[in-house]
Amino acid sequence: MGNTDRLTQIGRMRAMFAGICAGLTVLASPASAEMSAAVEALYTSVSIYPPSANAMTVCYGFVCRRREILDFTAADRTALTQIMNAGRASAAAERAAVQKAVMWFDRRMGPIIGTDKRVAKADFRYFDDKHNYDCWDTTRNTTSLLLVLQQWNLLKHHVVGDPHYRGNTLVLQTPHNTAVLVERATKIEWAVDLWPRGYLQPPDVMPVAKWVTED
What we know:
The protein is of the alpha+beta class. It is 44% helix and 16% strand.
Protein backbone atom coordinates (compact mmCIF):
# COMPACT_ATOMS: atom_id res chain seq x y z
CA MET A 1 0.00 0.00 0.00
CA GLY A 2 1.44 3.36 -1.00
CA ASN A 3 1.69 6.45 1.18
CA THR A 4 -1.24 8.04 -0.60
CA ASP A 5 -3.44 4.97 0.00
CA ARG A 6 -2.39 4.81 3.67
CA LEU A 7 -3.20 8.49 4.17
CA THR A 8 -6.57 8.00 2.52
CA GLN A 9 -7.35 5.03 4.79
CA ILE A 10 -6.27 6.97 7.88
CA GLY A 11 -8.50 9.84 6.84
CA ARG A 12 -11.46 7.52 6.44
CA MET A 13 -10.83 5.96 9.84
CA ARG A 14 -10.67 9.38 11.48
CA ALA A 15 -13.94 10.35 9.83
CA MET A 16 -15.53 7.10 11.00
CA PHE A 17 -14.43 7.62 14.61
CA ALA A 18 -15.58 11.23 14.48
CA GLY A 19 -18.99 10.01 13.32
CA ILE A 20 -19.17 7.49 16.16
CA CYS A 21 -18.25 10.15 18.71
CA ALA A 22 -20.86 12.50 17.27
CA GLY A 23 -23.45 9.74 17.54
CA LEU A 24 -22.55 9.14 21.18
CA THR A 25 -22.91 12.84 21.86
CA VAL A 26 -26.44 12.77 20.47
CA LEU A 27 -27.33 9.72 22.55
CA ALA A 28 -26.18 11.43 25.76
CA SER A 29 -29.27 13.51 26.43
CA PRO A 30 -29.15 16.71 28.52
CA ALA A 31 -31.36 15.00 31.10
CA SER A 32 -28.86 12.22 31.76
CA ALA A 33 -26.08 14.76 32.27
CA GLU A 34 -28.11 16.55 34.94
CA MET A 35 -29.53 13.54 36.79
CA SER A 36 -28.26 12.31 40.13
CA ALA A 37 -27.95 8.60 40.80
CA ALA A 38 -31.16 8.67 42.85
CA VAL A 39 -33.13 10.28 40.03
CA GLU A 40 -31.60 8.02 37.41
CA ALA A 41 -32.65 5.00 39.48
CA LEU A 42 -36.29 6.01 39.03
CA TYR A 43 -35.90 5.05 35.37
CA THR A 44 -33.37 2.23 35.41
CA SER A 45 -35.34 0.37 38.09
CA VAL A 46 -38.27 -0.08 35.70
CA SER A 47 -36.24 -0.14 32.45
CA ILE A 48 -37.53 3.07 30.90
CA TYR A 49 -35.68 5.98 29.33
CA PRO A 50 -35.40 9.23 31.30
CA PRO A 51 -37.27 12.21 29.85
CA SER A 52 -35.86 14.30 27.04
CA ALA A 53 -36.77 17.83 26.01
CA ASN A 54 -39.28 16.33 23.59
CA ALA A 55 -40.91 13.37 25.35
CA MET A 56 -41.36 11.46 28.59
CA THR A 57 -42.64 8.04 29.59
CA VAL A 58 -45.80 8.27 31.66
CA CYS A 59 -46.04 5.48 34.24
CA TYR A 60 -49.33 4.15 35.60
CA GLY A 61 -50.87 0.86 36.66
CA PHE A 62 -48.68 0.71 39.81
CA VAL A 63 -44.87 0.60 39.68
CA CYS A 64 -44.95 1.55 36.00
CA ARG A 65 -46.52 -1.71 34.82
CA ARG A 66 -48.44 0.32 32.23
CA ARG A 67 -46.74 3.00 30.12
CA GLU A 68 -47.56 5.69 27.60
CA ILE A 69 -45.24 8.09 25.79
CA LEU A 70 -46.09 11.78 26.05
CA ASP A 71 -44.61 13.53 23.01
CA PHE A 72 -44.69 17.22 23.79
CA THR A 73 -46.30 19.27 21.03
CA ALA A 74 -45.69 22.94 20.31
CA ALA A 75 -49.03 23.66 21.99
CA ASP A 76 -47.95 21.70 25.09
CA ARG A 77 -44.76 23.70 25.35
CA THR A 78 -46.63 26.97 24.92
CA ALA A 79 -49.13 26.04 27.64
CA LEU A 80 -46.46 25.00 30.13
CA THR A 81 -44.35 28.06 29.34
CA GLN A 82 -47.29 30.34 30.05
CA ILE A 83 -48.01 28.53 33.32
CA MET A 84 -44.41 28.73 34.52
CA ASN A 85 -43.78 32.30 33.35
CA ALA A 86 -46.61 33.42 35.62
CA GLY A 87 -44.54 32.23 38.58
CA ARG A 88 -41.19 33.85 37.90
CA ALA A 89 -41.60 36.67 40.46
CA SER A 90 -40.61 34.58 43.48
CA ALA A 91 -39.87 31.06 44.69
CA ALA A 92 -43.32 30.80 46.27
CA ALA A 93 -44.95 31.90 43.01
CA GLU A 94 -42.90 29.34 41.10
CA ARG A 95 -44.05 26.54 43.41
CA ALA A 96 -47.65 27.60 42.82
CA ALA A 97 -46.95 27.50 39.08
CA VAL A 98 -45.48 24.01 39.43
CA GLN A 99 -48.73 22.89 41.06
CA LYS A 100 -50.61 24.17 38.01
CA ALA A 101 -48.13 22.47 35.67
CA VAL A 102 -48.71 19.13 37.42
CA MET A 103 -52.46 19.67 37.14
CA TRP A 104 -51.94 20.41 33.43
CA PHE A 105 -50.16 17.05 33.12
CA ASP A 106 -53.05 15.32 34.92
CA ARG A 107 -55.54 16.86 32.51
CA ARG A 108 -53.36 16.19 29.46
CA MET A 109 -52.90 12.48 30.15
CA GLY A 110 -56.11 11.57 32.00
CA PRO A 111 -58.39 11.03 28.99
CA ILE A 112 -55.61 9.24 27.07
CA ILE A 113 -54.68 6.57 29.62
CA GLY A 114 -57.85 6.53 31.73
CA THR A 115 -56.42 8.21 34.81
CA ASP A 116 -59.21 10.79 34.66
CA LYS A 117 -60.94 8.13 36.77
CA ARG A 118 -58.12 7.93 39.30
CA VAL A 119 -58.60 8.40 43.04
CA ALA A 120 -56.42 9.83 45.80
CA LYS A 121 -53.99 7.49 47.57
CA ALA A 122 -54.64 4.62 45.16
CA ASP A 123 -52.97 1.28 45.80
CA PHE A 124 -53.53 -2.40 44.97
CA ARG A 125 -56.47 -2.61 47.37
CA TYR A 126 -58.61 -0.65 44.90
CA PHE A 127 -58.28 -3.41 42.27
CA ASP A 128 -58.24 -0.74 39.55
CA ASP A 129 -54.62 -0.42 38.54
CA LYS A 130 -55.43 0.45 34.91
CA HIS A 131 -56.96 3.79 35.97
CA ASN A 132 -54.60 4.77 38.74
CA TYR A 133 -51.14 5.81 39.83
CA ASP A 134 -49.37 4.53 42.91
CA CYS A 135 -46.85 6.76 44.66
CA TRP A 136 -43.99 5.35 42.60
CA ASP A 137 -45.84 6.32 39.42
CA THR A 138 -46.55 9.85 40.62
CA THR A 139 -42.96 10.25 41.83
CA ARG A 140 -41.59 9.21 38.44
CA ASN A 141 -44.09 11.23 36.41
CA THR A 142 -43.73 14.39 38.46
CA THR A 143 -39.94 14.14 38.48
CA SER A 144 -39.98 13.64 34.70
CA LEU A 145 -42.20 16.67 34.17
CA LEU A 146 -39.96 18.77 36.43
CA LEU A 147 -36.87 17.63 34.52
CA VAL A 148 -38.53 18.70 31.27
CA LEU A 149 -39.39 22.11 32.72
CA GLN A 150 -35.79 22.39 33.89
CA GLN A 151 -34.48 21.52 30.41
CA TRP A 152 -36.74 24.18 28.94
CA ASN A 153 -35.24 26.72 31.39
CA LEU A 154 -38.64 27.30 32.98
CA LEU A 155 -37.41 26.79 36.56
CA LYS A 156 -35.87 30.04 37.80
CA HIS A 157 -35.95 29.59 41.59
CA HIS A 158 -35.62 25.79 41.91
CA VAL A 159 -33.76 22.75 40.62
CA VAL A 160 -34.97 19.17 40.54
CA GLY A 161 -33.89 17.27 43.65
CA ASP A 162 -33.65 13.63 44.64
CA PRO A 163 -36.93 11.83 45.39
CA HIS A 164 -37.65 11.30 49.07
CA TYR A 165 -39.04 8.35 51.01
CA ARG A 166 -40.91 8.10 54.29
CA GLY A 167 -42.25 5.18 56.26
CA ASN A 168 -41.96 4.29 59.93
CA THR A 169 -43.84 1.18 60.97
CA LEU A 170 -43.12 1.91 64.64
CA VAL A 171 -45.52 4.88 64.48
CA LEU A 172 -47.81 3.25 61.86
CA GLN A 173 -46.56 5.56 59.10
CA THR A 174 -47.07 3.89 55.74
CA PRO A 175 -44.32 3.85 53.07
CA HIS A 176 -44.51 6.65 50.54
CA ASN A 177 -42.36 8.52 47.97
CA THR A 178 -42.39 11.97 46.42
CA ALA A 179 -40.75 14.10 43.79
CA VAL A 180 -38.68 17.01 45.12
CA LEU A 181 -37.68 20.53 44.15
CA VAL A 182 -34.76 22.32 45.82
CA GLU A 183 -35.03 26.08 46.25
CA ARG A 184 -31.86 27.65 44.84
CA ALA A 185 -31.51 30.47 47.37
CA THR A 186 -32.25 28.60 50.60
CA LYS A 187 -31.46 24.98 49.58
CA ILE A 188 -34.75 23.98 51.22
CA GLU A 189 -36.23 20.81 49.72
CA TRP A 190 -39.89 20.90 48.71
CA ALA A 191 -42.04 17.83 48.16
CA VAL A 192 -44.28 17.90 45.07
CA ASP A 193 -46.65 15.05 45.81
CA LEU A 194 -49.58 14.20 43.54
CA TRP A 195 -50.48 10.80 45.00
CA PRO A 196 -52.57 12.03 47.99
CA ARG A 197 -54.83 14.05 45.64
CA GLY A 198 -57.52 13.00 43.19
CA TYR A 199 -57.82 13.84 39.51
CA LEU A 200 -57.21 17.54 38.72
CA GLN A 201 -56.57 18.43 42.35
CA PRO A 202 -53.37 20.39 43.03
CA PRO A 203 -50.50 18.27 44.35
CA ASP A 204 -49.27 18.75 47.88
CA VAL A 205 -46.31 21.15 47.93
CA MET A 206 -44.59 21.44 51.30
CA PRO A 207 -41.10 21.35 52.82
CA VAL A 208 -39.73 17.82 52.84
CA ALA A 209 -39.01 18.28 56.56
CA LYS A 210 -42.78 18.56 57.08
CA TRP A 211 -43.68 15.95 54.46
CA VAL A 212 -41.69 13.20 56.19
CA THR A 213 -43.86 13.63 59.31
CA GLU A 214 -47.17 13.27 57.43
CA ASP A 215 -49.11 10.08 56.75
